[in-house]
Write a structure and sequence with these properties.
Elements lengths: L22 E2 L11 E13 L2 E12 L8 E3 L3 H10 L7 E2 L2 E6 L10 E7 L10 H9 L3 E5 L7 E2 L5 E2 L7 H19 L19 E11 L1 H12 L3 E7 L15 E5 L8 H8 L5 E6 L10 H12 L3 H8 L4 H21 L15 E3 L2
Parallel strand pairs: 1-5, 2-6, 7-8, 7-11, 11-12, 12-13, 13-14
Antiparallel strand pairs: 2-3, 3-8, 4-6, 9-10, 14-15
GO molecular function, one term: 1-alkyl-2-acetylglycerophosphocholine esterase activity
InterPro entries: AB_hydrolase_fold
Pfam family, one: PAF-AH_p_II
Length: 367
């Protein structure tokens, strides 16, 4: 939650819950026809200046059967407590929600290889912060790879070691991580297990990824990283930026599809965003939900209204997290528009992004 803390929130001492039993938060489930599987992988990149760089990723995918596979938590318990404390909350106030992802479930493969989407989180964030979008895509037949950018992430490794944001990292550093992960996706597609401990992969995962249909999305700093990756690596065919500041200013032309979902960092208020928009020479759209703030297109829109009464948060403080956009509607927007974008450009189907939709009256198309 630290990634989403409005200015001054980290110094706020929130109330301790009245009961000794922490509440379990919940996430809305995905709408797709397939159950969801997930597996964490531990990667090591030794190619940059000869230094070992440990990264945690998760792979999400449509699953064949999930009955005997447990649901994965949004964050492991110790990491959830670390994140709560860093955000100024009582670490014992709430337990992380369970996701729709079943750990280690076999991959569903009945129609060939599956399109791939990679996710990059925001500053001081973690790879779970847009799980609503991630599990939605997986339930509709995508493989989604989420990445913790070590040094600017809350992350836990298989040995129980926890790291917190402690390094000055820019979007270019995030982009370097993603390009390394793209290489490991190539390994997976070739049947190679990139996990450092060589833990067993879910049945059917190796060879399931379609390297000719790769997209990427990112929130905040991850949105800027998405553009940088696309400028440097043509393996990524379509990019979605969720309220990215696009700083440092990107001045390289981009000829592939890019969707901007803006809230606080708009073309009208941020010259860097307007400059980036001018360099989009392929398919482009800019949409914005009325009442949205920076965290409106993330899991916090669903989680913070649940946490607010537990910790005694005022309505004003809650609005700092979620704006005036109704949380239920915000979740529907998160589920609908990223899926529509990747369906359009990786599967060549769908019409939601052709024009404003009466089903989503909050969503404006910014010309």
């Amino acid at each position: 939650m630290a990634a989403a803390v409005p200015i001054g929130f980290a110094d706020t001492a929130w109330a301790t819950p009245a009961t000794g039993t922490p509440a379990r938060l919940t996430l809305p489930g995905p709408t797709g026809p397939f159950p969801v599987g997930t597996v964490p992988l531990h990667l090591v990149d030794g190619s940059r200046s000869g230094e070992r760089r440990d990264l945690m990723i998760s792979v999400w995918y449509p699953a064949e059967s999930v009955g005997r596979y447990p649901r994965a938590p949004w964050l492991p318990p110790a990491l959830m407590q670390t994140l709560m404390a860093a955000s100024g909350f009582d670490p014992a106030a709430a337990v992380a929600p369970l996701t729709a992802g079943h750990e280690g479930a076999p991959v569903r493969r009945r129609t060939g290889r599956l399109p791939v989407v990679v996710f990059s989180h925001g500053a001081h964030g973690h790879r779970a912060e847009n799980t609503v979008v991630v599990q939605q895509l997986a339930s509709h037949g995508y493989v989604v790879v989420t990445v913790d950018h070590a040094g600017d992430a809350f992350s836990e490794f298989p040995d129980g070691r926890i790291i917190v944001p402690d390094l000055p990292m820019g979007p270019a550093d995030f982009a370097d991580d993603i390009r390394f992960v793209l290489d490991r996706i190539v390994d997976l597609a070739a049947g190679i297990n990139p996990d450092v401990q060589h833990r067993p992969l879910p049945a059917g995962l190796c060879g399931a990824l379609d390297l000719h249909r790769i997209g990427m999305f990112g929130w905040s700093k991850g949105a800027t990283a998405t553009a940088l990756v696309m400028n440097a690596d043509r393996r990524v065919r379509a990019g979605l930026g969720i309220d990215g500041p696009m700083q440092p200013t990107i001045t390289t032309d981009l000829d592939r599809p890019y969707l901007m979902m803006t809230a606080d960092f708009t073309r009208a208020t941020q010259p860097s965003v307007a400059e980036f928009w001018s360099h989009l020479h392929g398919w482009r759209r800019n949409i914005q939900a009325v009442g949205a703030v920076h965290t409106a297109y993330s899991d916090y829109q669903a989680l913070m209204p649940q946490l607010a009464p537990i910790v005694g948060m005022s309505d004003e403080d809650l609005a700092g997290w979620i704006g005036t956009l109704d949380p239920t509607r915000a979740v529907r927007i998160q589920q609908a528009y990223p899926l529509a974008f990747f369906d359009l450009h990786l599967r060549h189907r769908g019409h939601l992004l052709d024009r404003p939709s009466p089903a989503f009256p909050e969503v404006m198309f910014i010309p």
